[in-house]
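User: Design a sequence. Structure:
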């Protein structure tokens, strides 16, 4: 008799596993604790004991939990390769980096778990999603600061930094100067041009 009640497997999921129902192949995967292997619902491998089964929403969750894909039903082949998945997330960030991009939101958009997203992103991009976003925002801020029309706070805001103090601190930390100093440093060349051969 088990003392702890394990997470219940939905009846229709368990039924899908029992009947090798292909209709659920895109819905979930199941791992078998005793073998460390995960399968598609339709896999015709030996019926696992129900108490050994755990359900995963996608292949990454199963891989992340330490399960190996079944050689028979090849469950990881059903999904995008991880590198491609990460690439799609990065592309999304490239377009939306000025918007709030929490790990939770990214996970929802990319249909993964925040934990695996963080882990895989870092593996393929060498930076976390938030570091990736920060880099894009700082580059955008630099670009905006080069124009004289925006205040430092506004340039930060438009680049995606909601908090001006944080923007200035981060800018200084990564660039070795404040946004204001950066702007001033951009000026001499431009000023020289402005006072150049205007008489002609
Ligand atoms: Zn299998």
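Assistant: Done.
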């Amino acid at each position: 008799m088990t003392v702890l009640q394990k997470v219940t497997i939905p009846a229709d999921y368990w039924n899908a596993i029992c009947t090798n129902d292909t209709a659920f192949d895109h819905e979930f995967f199941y791992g078998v604790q005793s073998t460390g292997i995960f399968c598609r619902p339709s896999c015709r491998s030996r019926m696992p004991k129900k108490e050994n089964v755990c359900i995963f929403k996608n292949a990454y969750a199963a891989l992340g939990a330490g399960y190996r894909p079944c050689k028979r039903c090849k469950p990881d082949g059903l999904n995008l390769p991880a590198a491609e998945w990460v690439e799609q997330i990065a592309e999304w960030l490239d377009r939306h980096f000025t918007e709030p991009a929490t790990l939770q939101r990214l996970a929802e958009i990319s249909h993964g778990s925040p934990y695996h997203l963080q882990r895989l992103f870092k593996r393929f991009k060498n930076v976390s999603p938030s570091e990736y976003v920060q880099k894009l925002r700082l580059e955008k801020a630099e670009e905006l600061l080069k124009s004289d029309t925006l205040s430092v706070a506004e340039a930060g805001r438009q680049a995606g930094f909601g908090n001006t103090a944080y923007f200035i601190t981060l800018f200084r930390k990564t660039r070795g100067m404040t946004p204001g100093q950066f702007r001033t440093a951009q000026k001499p060349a431009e000023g020289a041009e402005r006072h150049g051969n205007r008489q002609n």
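The pocket of zinc ion is lined by residues 39, 43, 45, 70, 72-73 (CB under 6 Å). The two ends are 96 Å apart (CA to CA).
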